[in-house]
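Sample A.
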Amino acid sequence: MEAVTEQGNNKLYQNWELAKAAGFSSTPENNTSLNTVGDNTVTIRYHKGDTDLSQSFTVNVKDLANQIPAKVEILTKAGELVKALQLYRSSMGRKTGYAFLCAGFLFPEV
């Protein structure tokens, strides 16, 4: 996480534990799954002494039922179709941050 001070200096926190120790918190808590379809507000707060600041942003969670089946097209740099895949939930599994297909193609999870 990177924070900018009132003087315009950047302070980089290598992980959330270091940011928490410096006075940051979040709502919802860090590592909370956002399971509610639609807009979800995330707020980051900083509190130290008399200083109390916060910044919020919105994360839009899509309904999984409307996302699958999905069509994935693999294109060349020139835009020519190499392969089109129709994805169904039954043909997908989960593996540490990746959606994978039985056909052997590996795609980063979005």
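Sample B.
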Amino acid sequence: MNIQELREAVEKTIYLSEIDFQYVIQDLVEVCEESEEIENIEEIKEAFIQAINETDVIYYSNAMEFLMKEDTSLNESMEIAAELGYTCEKLNSETLATLLKQQRMLEELSEIF
């Protein structure tokens, strides 16, 4: 896979495309042609995972809009929260939306790599 192919694959995703591609790869890809093969693909994957883990859904209205679109029953987001050890007292719409969005991004990343 080369830089251009990776960029195109990320741009085709729904959620992963929200991450700043250049920011993620800036320190990991030496100055090279877009068509050159990427040598440190695992490091780039790890950088994307770190960027995903830093992603937050902020503001109640954004969280509710995301949850209404992606998980109206809250089953999936509650399941993710339970797997990660969250208790009901620690949950709110922003946390649930963030966890679900991060999960969606990780799923998209696994389709690319």
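B remarks: The two ends are 9 Å apart (CA to CA). Helices lie at 3-11, 21-25, 41-53, 60-70, 75-83, 93-112.
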